[in-house]
Structure formats: C-alpha cells, structure tokens
Amino acid sequence: MTSTTNTTPSKEREQSLAGRSVSSFEVGAQSVANVAPSAVIAFAPASMAASAGSGAWFSFAIAMIGVLAIAYCVCVFARRRAGASSLYAFTRLSLGPGGAFVTGWALLIGAVAIAAGSLAGAGYYLGRVLHSAHVTAFDGIPGQVVLDLALAALAAWLTIAGVRIAARVSSALEVLSIVLIVVVLIAVFARSGNIIDTDQLTLNGATADGLVFAVVLAVLGFVGFEGAASLGAEAADPFRAIPRAVMGSAVLAGLLYIFATYAQVAGFGGADKLAASTDPMDDLAHRSGLGFLGPFLSLGFAASFLAVVMACVTVAARLLFGMGKEGVLPRFFARTHPRHRTPAAATWTVTPVIAVTTVLVVGAGTAPLLATTYIDTVGTFGYMLSYVLVCVGAPLFVRRTSSGRTALTVLCGIAGAAVMAYVFYRNLVPVPASPLNLLPYVFVGCMAVGLAGYAALRFRNPQAATNAGTYAEDAQ
After folding, report:
1. CB neighbours (10 Å) of residue 175?
2. I want to staple 57 with a disulfide (CB 3.0 to 4.6 A). Which of 261, 366, 387, 398 is the partner?
3. For residue 104, what is the enclosing H or E element?
C-alpha cells in the first residue's frame, strides 16, 4: 500500500487498516448490503408497474444489463488496483488527481446521503415493529428521532468494532430480510395459480415509453453494487475477490428484482393492482394467508435499511481515511482504532453528519419514507457521477496500458455512461414536483463545496493535491 504519510513503522501500523483480514465472503457481503435488495423489492416493483405495466420485470432486466456494463468498467480497475478509497483510487489511473477527487467527493456525498436516507427507513420500520408489540413510546416524530439516533450509534459502533463483524452482521440482516420476502412470494405463487403469466411474458399492454421510464427507476435499485471496492486494503485476495463481488452483487440483485417483480404482479393479479398498493409485501402476505408475518417483514426491512447504513458508513469512512493518509484532507481522518484497526476517527466524524441530516429532515415533519426518498435521491446523484467517471476512465486506462479487451471496455464505458446520463436527465426533465425539483441543486451545491476546497488545497499545498487517489496498492 503506497502512502504519503511520513511516520515511523510502528506509528504507520497504528494508522493503518487491518490488511488482508477480510474473507472473500465478507467482501461480497459488503456489496450486497450496500445494494440492499430487500428494501428495493419492498417498493420499487409497485412504482415500476405504474409506468411499465406488465413489462416491469423486463425493465429490471434491461437495467441489469446497463449496470453490468458499469460493473465491468469497475472491474477493469479492480483487477489492477486495490485500496480503501474505492472508485476514488481507481479513476486516478486515467483521469489524474483532479478526476480522482471529483469521483471521490461524489462518492462520499452518495454514501453519506444514502446512509442518512436509509437511517430514516430503518427507524420507521423499527417503530412499526415496536408498535405491533404494543410499545408506543416511539410513535410520532420525537420517537422516530430517538430511534434514528440510536440506530446511527449502533451502526457506528459495529463498523468500528471490526469490518469483519460489520460485514457479517449486515449480510445476516440482509439474508434475513430476503428469506422472509422469498417465503411470502413463493406462497403467493403457490396460491395465485398464475405462475405462467402470459401477460407478463408477452409484455401485454406495455409501451416503449413506459418501459424506458421504469428502467430509470430500476437502475436506482442497483446503486452501491461496487461497495466491495472499499475493502481493497483489508481484503485477503482483493484482486480476485472484489471483481467477483462487484459483478456477483449486480447479478444477484438483478435476478432477485426480476423474480420479485414478476411474482408481485402475478400475486396481485395485474400490474395495475400492484401499482395501487401502498404496502405491497404486507398486502401479499395477507393475500397468501401469511398476515402474521407482517411484523417480521417490517423487522426484515428495518434490518435491510440498517445494513445499508453500515455499508455506507464503511465506504464513507474509508474514503475519508484514504484522503487523510494522502494529505488531501486533515491527517486526523487517518487515525485508526488501536485494537480493531478500523478508521475510527473518520467513522465518528461521518456518523453525526448522517444522523443530523436524517434528524433535520424527519424532525421537520417529513414522513420517514418520504425522507428516505428525498435524501437517497441526492445520494444517487453522487453515485451516478462517480459511475460516469469510472466508465469514462476505464477505456482510457485499457487503451493506455493495453491491459484488457479494449473494444469491450469502450462499449461498456459508452453504455454505462449513457445509462447514467439518461437517468440523470429523466430526473430533471420533465421538472418534478417540489421538493424533488430542488434535489439536483442540493447535490450540485455539495459538489461545489468539495471542489472549492480542493481548489484551495491546490493553491496552498499543490503536492498534497496531486496525491489524490494514490493511497492504494497496484497488482504486480
């Protein structure tokens, strides 16, 4: 691992992560937890069915192809470079320090915002579980805020206690939620008698415009699939495990989404009925005689959202850690826990930012799930920008180094960048209702703050600015 920090060997060890300590399974768990497929399954199919009708499952299939193109570009770098700062260190290889900083700052905004939005979702569903158990002390806005703060502290503690613990807990939470959802969907299939749904298989009634708009919604469900790349400094076999985790999480999520969407439409007896449901999984559970699973489904969704919070804290903290090691940000962020060797200073810095964001939006009276939508949207813009830069950088890197399939990389780069650009465009045109129309400008404002800081760094300390993206290890 290269580093720009001048310290003694013992001091360097105190300020380094636990190298080669994370198994391939735990690396994969980071990406799966970051995507949180169960949380997507809970709501996305209904929204997609409203526009794509019986073709909603097909829109997920198209989205998966586009995301796999981006994943291929990520893997182009991941096979050659591993580090704690993920895409930030990757794009350094082709876009230089400036491009690396833009990528890293966009990814940081994405991770912080997605964590904050997911925190609101975790608190909401935990509140539902407690309410079903006749614990009403956490009903209302004050109770929701208390739950959000408690869950934020729990997420921070688990991620500091060890990346292996965090990965195992988050994967267990996600698996719990997925199993509950699959049980309900299988029961729905068995009772619906509509396993071979000809309307869905023939895309009956679906329009091209509806399918394309649903693809926009579907792509958002894959955000975070590259999360495993943040464990490059700690993975036991990073140059193999991370590419497998990146591609595998995208494929796994896509197949789950296709199955769940098909099953929900079949279970409701039509896309229009699914689109009209405000709580599809709970409604399906009652339809299939499994209404008693309602509280457990809520617990599963709370677990899934908490897993996202933990995964995003992991990504954000390691980004700050890498920038601190390079001198791009204050060295304070490079401090690690003396025993667990996790980025404790960065974690305890970023967690309050996440919690305050959630508390401000929810405390203002915004319904928790709407808060999730609003905050996550800002975060999604950050991820999309970082993906575009990876898609631009991968062909340049391959062409310069002759280290891969140039034609395929160029094709995937163009396809991935085009998909992200179109998704961003559809979030602007037509202009959405307030406050969604303001969210792109919130993201631009956050980006402007980071770029202004980097410009000031280049003026004050040009050497530190040129270090952006260098704290990484390259394959021999």
Report:
1. 18
2. 261
3. helix 87-132
d(CA 334, CA 210): 47
Q: What is the CA radius of gyration of the chain?
A: 22
Three-state DSSP at 22 gives strand
Give the DSSP letter of residue 237.
S
Distances (CA, A) of 240 to 79, 163, 408, 431: 7, 19, 20, 43
The answer to whether the predicted template modeling score (pTM) of the entire model surpasses 0.85 is yes
Structural domain includes residue 1? no
- Rounded-to-integer distance, Cα 47 and Cα 34, Å: 21
Say how many domains are in the chain.
1
* Residue 394 to residue 95: CA distance in whole angstroms: 9
360: CATH: 1.20.1740.10
CA dihedral 228, 232, 237, 242 (to 10 degrees): 30
Rounded Cα distance between 212 and 254, Å, is 16
Q: Is the peptide bond before 45 cis (omega within 30 degrees of 0)?
A: no
Residue 3: is its pLDDT beyond 90? no
**Cα(232)–Cα(315) distance, integer angstroms:** 11
pLDDT at 308: 93
22 beta partners = 235
> Which element (helix H / strand E) includes 417?
helix 406-426
Q: Is residue 287 part of a domain?
A: yes
pLDDT at 229: 95
Domain that holds residue 29: 9-470
Non-local (6+) Cβ contacts of 432 within 8 A are none
Q: Does 196 reside within a domain?
A: yes
Q: Is residue 443 part of a domain?
A: yes
